[in-house]
């Protein structure tokens, strides 16, 4: 089983055992569906409900109906089994992108050092070619080839 990190439980909400999860996970619509199993402290919990409130993911777990029953989960990291995500062939997780090679039109090759968010919607790759470069991942000049496990960048970004 391959676990994928999706967020951290930051607090509770109300008295019915609802948990607030802070998450930047790109495939939230697949991860936070009723019936999906969340993994917290290496134990699986079935997701009962999900809603978004003030940029936090609010969830309840099937076994718990009271705030006192979920207090032990506070500040814990939340994971999901990769198989439960049911990603399509063209959807790639950041952890997998780190294994991809960078290829430019002029033939330069590089490796990915880091992937981070410059803003809530702009994902950036820090790559090592001849020198270190920052590449906006959502740019039309960047093409991700899932079959070859490569990221091809336009020559305009090489300078």
Q: Which SSEs are present, and which pair or pack?
A:
Elements: E1 3-13, E2 18-22, H1 28-31, E3 37-40, E4 43-53, E5 56-61, H2 67-70, E6 77-81, H3 82-85, H4 94-97, E7 101-104, E8 109-117, E9 123-128, E10 132-136, E11 142-145, E12 150-153
Parallel strand pairs: 7-12
Antiparallel strand pairs: 1-2, 1-6, 2-5, 3-4, 3-6, 4-5, 7-8, 8-9, 9-10, 11-12
Features:
10% helix; 12 strands; single chain; Elongation Factor Tu (Ef-tu), domain 3; SH3 type barrels; six-stranded mixed sheet; 159 residues; mainly beta
Would you kindly provide a written description of the structure presented here, covering whatever features stand out?
The structure is a single chain. The chain has 159 residues and is mainly beta. The protein folds into two domains: 3-83, Beta Barrel (Elongation Factor Tu (Ef-tu), domain 3); 94-157, PRC-barrel domain (SH3 type barrels, Roll). It is built from four helices and twelve strands; from the N terminus they run ββαβββαβααββββββ. It has helices at 28-31, 67-70, 82-85, 94-97; strands spanning 3-13, 18-22, 37-40, 43-53, 56-61, 77-81, 101-104, 109-117, 123-128, 132-136, 142-145, 150-153. The strands form two sheets. The protein has a six-stranded antiparallel beta barrel with strand order 1-2-5-4-3-6. A six-stranded mixed sheet has the order 10-9-8-7-12-11, with no helix packed on it. β4 (43-53) and β5 (56-61) form a beta hairpin. The radius of gyration is 19 Å and the shape is elongated. The protein starts with a strand and ends in a 6-residue tail after the last strand.
């Amino acid at each position: 089983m391959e676990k994928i990190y999706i967020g951290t439980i930051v607090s509770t909400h109300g008295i019915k055992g609802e948990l607030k999860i802070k998450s930047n996970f790109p495939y939230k619509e697949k991860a936070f569906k009723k019936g999906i199993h969340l993994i917290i402290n290496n134990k699986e919990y079935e997701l009962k409900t999900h809603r978004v409130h003030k940029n936090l993911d609010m969830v309840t777990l099937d076994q718990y109906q009271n705030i006192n029953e979920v207090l032990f989960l506070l500040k814990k990291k939340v994971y999901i089994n990769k198989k439960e995500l049911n990603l399509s062939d063209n959807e790639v997780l950041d952890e997998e992108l780190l294994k991809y090679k960078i290829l430019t039109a002029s033939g330069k090759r590089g490796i990915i050092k880091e992937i981070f968010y410059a803003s809530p919607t702009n994902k950036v790759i820090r790559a090592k070619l001849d020198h270190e470069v920052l590449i906006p991942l959502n740019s039309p000049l960047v093409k991700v080839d899932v079959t070859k496990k490569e990221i091809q960048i336009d020559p305009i970004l090489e300078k």
